[in-house]
Amino acid sequence: MPTKSIAVIAGVGAGTGGCIARKFAQKYSVALLARNPTSYQTLVQEIHSNGGNAIGINTDVTSDASVKNAFSEIEKAFPGAPLAAAIYNVGGGFVRKPFLELSQEDFRAGFESNAKGAFNFSQAALPLLLKSVDLEHPPTLIFTGATASMKGSALCASFATGKFALRALSQSLAREFGPKGVHVSHAIIDGIIDIERTRGFQFDAPDAKLSPHSIADSYWFLHTQPRTTFTHELDLRPYVEKW
Amino acid sequence: MPTKSIAVIAGVGAGTGGCIARKFAQKYSVALLARNPTSYQTLVQEIHSNGGNAIGINTDVTSDASVKNAFSEIEKAFPGAPLAAAIYNVGGGFVRKPFLELSQEDFRAGFESNAKGAFNFSQAALPLLLKSVDLEHPPTLIFTGATASMKGSALCASFATGKFALRALSQSLAREFGPKGVHVSHAIIDGIIDIERTRGFQFDAPDAKLSPHSIADSYWFLHTQPRTTFTHELDLRPYVEKW
Amino acid sequence: MPTKSIAVIAGVGAGTGGCIARKFAQKYSVALLARNPTSYQTLVQEIHSNGGNAIGINTDVTSDASVKNAFSEIEKAFPGAPLAAAIYNVGGGFVRKPFLELSQEDFRAGFESNAKGAFNFSQAALPLLLKSVDLEHPPTLIFTGATASMKGSALCASFATGKFALRALSQSLAREFGPKGVHVSHAIIDGIIDIERTRGFQFDAPDAKLSPHSIADSYWFLHTQPRTTFTHELDLRPYVEKW
Amino acid sequence: MPTKSIAVIAGVGAGTGGCIARKFAQKYSVALLARNPTSYQTLVQEIHSNGGNAIGINTDVTSDASVKNAFSEIEKAFPGAPLAAAIYNVGGGFVRKPFLELSQEDFRAGFESNAKGAFNFSQAALPLLLKSVDLEHPPTLIFTGATASMKGSALCASFATGKFALRALSQSLAREFGPKGVHVSHAIIDGIIDIERTRGFQFDAPDAKLSPHSIADSYWFLHTQPRTTFTHELDLRPYVEKW
């Protein structure tokens, strides 16, 4: 029996990351990276009880050492298994403040969570993804973007700099690693996601929020595209969203 | 038994349109619009022999009357059947010439094939799509774009004006009809498609051309997105493509 | 004494086109193209009384023959004078309607006024501009864009298709004729211009509308850039505008 | 006699920054920020000998404290003088390497030089610019972008993340401070600038490089736009440049 491949998802919790993990766990062993065990413990158990393989690893993606350690743990847990997909879905870095009230830390937060973390994650994942070009689906690296990836709004200087930087990174990686057979994608999530934390956000339409399950389906779709026909960027948006 | 829904595809032939038709024919009755019967006859037979329903209709999409007639024929062939998807995949209008050598007809060709045809097609399809918001998948209108949708290159004034105009139309329709439950999408095909006509185009990599089958899979993916999570625009590009 | 050069402005009247004409008339003979003499008669007199040279020519820019005739008239009025600048500032084509209420003519209007007219104008102007590469300033072709050049809004399918198409044309011409020394620019006017027709539009701020004089200054700035340092595209927007 | 206003330019040396300084010194006292005195000493003398006012201040823009110190020095040198313009023209952070060879420092360099430095500079300049809304020209904050502001190329992950982030910052500031009367602009320099350091870069055309003098003229043009008619973004490109 061939070794089951691995998907690693950075940024799991009650929301989108969790749905992505469940989706990819249907085929792959999954490694779930989050700052706190509370973000992945229940999910790891759920995946196990559904017959899947999952591990959770405490990881601070803004730390090079922490990300390297996470990938060592993955290798220990699933020795010799190829990496099929790596998904960077880290939130955070969202600060909404008048510019002149931003502290140095506030401003840096957008870059650290988004671009710096994605850099650490990509440096660890890409050498493994490059070895997986002969798997059933092209090895895939997906980054989660936002409305702020395309537009720098007032009061959002920190988050927008981080998300713009992440988009630049994803383009640069797609152009360098695409020709080597790695599929690098950037998904622009343009709207409120329907998760625990946003339950209180009310709209006129009852289905005005993005479904995290459908986001996960979209990521799986990206992963299964053959290399003749890669999507680098797509937007995901509720039907009632203004844009 | 509920009535089988319909997908209408404008611009079918040996290439992408044919693959889209086959894909959608797995679930829907399909109506294939093309200028010449030679573009759809074999395909209609093939779909029939695979147990599907298909009709072909001679249509000049640049003619309002011809498009209206096509939709009358569809209603006659599949009376009462709801329209689930409408795909505008018309090529043509590609003229590569120094600007000062373009005739009035050359210049107009890009707009006629792309924007004018898409206007006629959308005006006929949207009233029907609006009635289909309670089907399994949100009713879907997809337009096929190109590299020239995003960039006006030298010698391509005609095609680029047509493709830019088509993109404007698709954005305007998405913003008007999205909130009414219709999924309007625009796919940017950035590369050479691997079809009969491009067989002679040689690249270093053997798989350097877009697979029309994968384009069809992508269109089907767009069609099956729930309305909480619509993609308006995605690019499709071979892994070795420069961009 | 060297022959005074010419600037031709299509789309003059009480607003922006008039201000552009006054600005360019400080250095050049100006030819003013408009559908009706009432759009240019007073302006021609004003420029004469200020010591400038100006002619007005009844022109329907959507007609190839009418534009050709206009350029013949210009040659008759200013024989042998080189063309220094050609500015396409034609409004029109603005139809705001639900998509399903658009007539064939409504939809075509955006393309005709913007792209088709600009095509006719450019085909007549570019052969003359190419002869002017040794003038003091690089020969210049400027197109007036709008918010709708960048975004296809609901109910604006006609205007947006026209303005997107115009932008495609301007990019294609810039890439073909830039290396030949012709400066092709596209100005995105994003806001309400402060002219007679918009006097009734009230905003909180008293200076919330674009100054047509400043637009003219910007066009003059574009014209005077050396070819080492061309601007292809700039936006122009009131300080209080949301974008 | 009214107090002469100030322009502060971060990133001066033999190239563009120096030309911007000379241009703004024709009307304003100028403060020149650079890491090393060798970057500004000759320029300060030249401006003095032409009857202007200039000071140079050793500044590391990536350090909050260093930038605050620079603005204190400016206040000491020109007490009570209003700030008319602040120009962030810092180069650096350009690293061209395969992604997997980038060190943590390499990757961070693009962000530090471009976004972090621009953050420090903007936090120091904006409180002063806000006090200058009644000067002859709207107070102006200009950022120097690059090709990499719009496109993340292979091997350019560090520089592109920094330049994308800078663009995000400039958009966010324009949307927050524009309505308060401050003109925030972003200039995309798309090509090689004709300076000492690029003397060896040969092209077919003798004038294939951007003129730093013309870049300075463009910045001055931006500064003198009235607030009814602000340009947020323009590109600057040699006529022969491919884009």
UniProtKB/TrEMBL annotation, chains A, B, C, D:
<dbReference type="InterPro" id="IPR036291">
    <property type="entry name" value="NAD(P)-bd_dom_sf"/>
</dbReference>
<dbReference type="Pfam" id="PF00106">
    <property type="entry name" value="adh_short"/>
</dbReference>
<dbReference type="InterPro" id="IPR002347">
    <property type="entry name" value="SDR_fam"/>
</dbReference>
<protein>
    <recommendedName>
        <fullName>7-alpha-hydroxysteroid dehydrogenase</fullName>
    </recommendedName>
</protein>
